[in-house]
Write a structure and sequence with these properties.
Elements lengths: L2 H4 L1 E9 L13 H5 L2 E9 L6 E7 L8 H7 L4 E6 L11 H19 L3 E7 L2 H13 L22 E5 L5 H8 L4 E3 L2 E5 L16 H26 L8 E3 L28 H6 L7 E3 H8 L8 H4 L7 E6 L7 H10 L6 E5 L10 H17 L5
Helix pairs in contact: 4-5, 7-9
Protein name: Alpha/beta hydrolase
InterPro entries: AB_hydrolase_fold
Organism: Nocardia callitridis
């Protein structure tokens, strides 16, 4: 991407991070183990201001070319997309260490590029990561992962603001709403209970409210069953981790019944046909480890939960709800806004915008304009 096309330059960043010292092998890459480096893309508009930079990160997705980087840079705002150590290695993800990595990015923008303020922009799964980070930076409380591995989150540098856009409250909450409760045995993805099969050929919408209630209870029972399995694996005595597969994880009733959690969305999932995605190899949380499950995917043990983290965040906070979103739902945005510790927290709902704003250029322009207006109102750009 040339500077001439949108009057900005991309700068590849190599940011060192502190690797774990517990001796557990989380990645097979020797380069990552011996030369611990985070990668980032800092997009600097010509004549950009040093007053503020936006920082985006996701626990495991690659944000180096996120569509919001160019959109903000075109409006004269410096912005950096960065990857954590778990990009490309999602099965080993520990949210506590991902938060450490985000902290390395905050420090980097201040120390190496002299930005006066850093505002976290949490998009999608980056939202609960940013919320967790900021909660710990303002009110440190977490000293270990859920499995007891020590983690240093004290001394994190607080960001100056928090933008949550198209964000869900946490990966664990998402999975508990998406997981297929019809699975009878975790090692057999084909043996299912037809009474709890969302995609059964006889299922009709709108769904029966009593059935949905039982379905939600069964989802929780299944995640609790996997919780027990993960703990059993870690209790085997050798202190190592265990990898396993979680089948059928794209089965939220809201995918087929849009009267549940009403919004502007179309039926379906962010992956397209949810029934096909439910059994596909690359579904949500398909490949995990025991430590990863308990840190990331269990509602009972994860620390990265925006609904419990945001009350500990006093920094200026905006929640941007995409009303056409098939992954982060309207009710969740409203819950995050209500949970915020910022007494002046703002909720903006963007009509019809989908999760990635695909084929919605006018919506993208409006979204960036309104977010920049909020940054100005809260004194973060001046």
């Amino acid at each position: 991407m040339s500077a001439a096309k949108f009057a900005a330059e991309e700068h590849f960043q190599r940011i060192p991070y502190r690797p774990a010292t517990d001796g557990k092998v989380e990645m097979h890459s020797g380069l990552s183990r011996h030369y611990p480096t985070l990668h980032a893309n800092l997009v600097l508009p010509s004549n950009h201001s040093k007053r503020v930079a936006l920082l985006m990160a996701h626990p495991a997705s690659n944000f180096l070319s996120h569509f919001l980087l160019r959109a903000f840079a075109e409006q004269g705002i410096a912005i950096m997309g960065m990857n954590t150590r778990y990009t490309g290695n999602e099965a080993a993800l520990l949210m506590e260490r991902a938060a450490q990595d985000l902290g390395a990015g905050v420090r980097w923008l201040r120390a190496h590029h002299d930005f006066e303020r850093v505002v976290l922009l949490g998009f999608s799964g980056g939202g609960p990561l940013a919320s967790f980070y900021q909660a710990q930076a303002e009110n440190h409380s977490v000293t270990t992962t859920p499995t007891g591995d020590p983690v240093e989150l004290d001394g994190l540098t607080p960001a100056d603001g928090l933008l949550l856009v198209g964000a869900h409250p946490g990966r664990a909450r998402v999975l508990e709403h998406w997981i297929d409760p019809s699975v009878l045995e975790e090692n057999d993805p084909y043996g299912t209970d037809s009474l709890l099969d969302l995609y059964d050929k006889d299922r009709r919408v709108p769904l029966d409210p009593a059935w949905v209630t039982e379905y939600r209870r069964a989802q929780r029972r299944r995640t609790e069953r996997i919780d027990r399995f993960a703990r059993e694996q870690l209790a085997r005595g050798d202190g190592d981790d265990r990898a396993f597969v979680v089948h059928r994880t794209v089965a939220d009733p809201r995918f087929i019944d849009i009267t549940l959690d009403p919004s502007d969305r179309e039926p379906g999932s962010m992956y397209g046909d949810p029934a096909r995605a439910n059994t596909a190899a690359g579904g949500l949380a398909r490949f995990v480890t025991a430590r990863n499950w308990l840190s990331t995917w269990s509602t009972r043990t994860t620390h990265a939960d925006a609904l419990t983290d945001l009350p500990n965040v006093a920094a200026p906070t905006l929640v941007g709800c995409l009303r056409g979103d098939q992954a982060a739902f309207v009710s969740e945005s409203r819950e995050m806004h209500a949970a915020s510790g910022d007494p002046d927290a703002t909720l903006i709902e963007f009509a019809h915008l989908n999760h990635y704003l695909v084929d919605q250029p006018e919506g993208l322009t409006d979204l960036v304009r309104r977010l920049l207006g909020w940054l100005d109102e809260r004194g973060l750009t001046g």
